[in-house]
Write a structure and sequence with these properties.
The protein is an all-alpha fold. The protein contains 3 helices and no strands. The longest helix is centred in the middle third of the chain and has 16 residues. It starts with a helix and ends with a helix.
Length: 55
């Protein structure tokens, strides 16, 4: 996972450093992202946007 993808995920979930739930969620999403094949990684980002209501 590169920095650009990490920033996208943080923006989608409205990442807050002081919130331990966000830290756990980010760790879990990074792990899931790394295990996916290349064509499915784009789908994960799209699904996150849909789930969190981000355009």
């Amino acid at each position: 996972m590169n920095k650009r993808q990490l920033q996208k995920i943080k923006k989608i979930i409205h990442f807050d450093v002081s919130n331990p739930e966000h830290k756990r969620l980010l760790r879990r999403l990074k792990k899931e992202y790394m295990q996916l094949p290349a064509d499915k990684k784009v789908d994960l980002i799209k699904d996150l946007k849909k789930t969190f209501g981000v355009e």
